[in-house]
Amino acid sequence: MHPARELAELLGGAEELTIVCHNNPDPDCLASAFALGRIAMAAGIDEHHILYSGEISHQQNRAFVNLLDIDLTPFEPAAVRDRPEGSLLAFVDHAVPGANNRVPEGTPVDVVIDHHPNEAIEAGFVDHREHVGATATILTEYVRELDTEMDADLGTALMFALRRETLGFLRGATPAEYDAAGWLHGHADGALLRTLSTPSVTGATVDAIAEAITNRTVRGSVLISGIGRTSERDALPQAADYLATLEGVETAIVFGVVDDGIQLSARSTDSRIHIGDVLDGAFGDVGSAGGHREMAGGEVPLGVFADFTTDDAQLFAIVDQVMSARLVAELNLSTEADTREPVKDEPN
């Protein structure tokens, strides 16, 4: 049986669906949850909820939720723990309770749809495809297979998710993404896609990216940068995307203190490096980290760092030293940096 039909059959026997996004959800996760909710409604489920934890702080993500009117609810443990009989629990774009989500470890999951590397998935229905570039690709296939009613909001959400997850089809895109995009083209709102692609940027985001540029350290083709404390979590992947384009840089890793944790974001075009494995190897014993060959992220609790000092400058000096040392060791880099200079204006 086609996975879409198997899923529809499972949903048809349920009365309620709770869809849990991963922490700080991105467009791929949000669009996939949006599409799964539509599929559930078509299967006869009158009530479904989309839950998220963390923040929706990236300016594109905020615009995505607001302009497409996606109904989200902040995660509360009771929403999962106290679900009524006949309710199903679904994960999209992540797979394991307690890993990049606030669902307690060991919680039974009914549906998992994901494309990230993972070997510990347990659920009643699992569609796990590491070979595709986005979870939205899988959900687009479902929508097509099941003849789910489409409108401009759903078409735009899935199309934008495909574009954002693959950086405009330049990173990790497969024929499946192009096929999905070709079908979605007739359902998406072009003007809305352009608006989502060029949202306004906060001053705090610009400051964080500037800090990453100033603090960069380059060893060979690897760039590492710490930006101190920031309220703009999503400035980290934006900084990593930008720094990865610098001449001679094949791998860029950016980290910073956000609330009570250290967030990391990494990008790599070096065929010798699986950046998800690198972050997992460097920080898997003290936090959660991992991802794809070319794109990865992670989080390390401040823990003893926060207990050592309340001064942000002193705190980040320690964080910077420890995080950089772990990355240097994992990547087997020289301890001598090639450069650590701010970007300077070209002479007139």
Automatic annotation (TrEMBL):
InterPro entries membership: DDH_dom, DHH_sf, DHHA1_dom, Oligoribo/pAp-PDE_c-di-AMP_PDE
Species this chain originates from: Halobaculum saliterrae
A Pfam family the protein falls into: DHHA1
Domain DDH: start-end pairs: 18-159
Domain DHHA1 intervals: 221-308
Signal peptide: none
Molecular-function GO term, any one: nucleic acid binding
Record-given protein name: Bifunctional oligoribonuclease/PAP phosphatase NrnA
SUPFAM superfamilies, alphabetized: DHH phosphoesterases (SSF64182)
Matching Gene3D superfamilies: inorganic pyrophosphatase (n-terminal core) (3.90.1640.10)
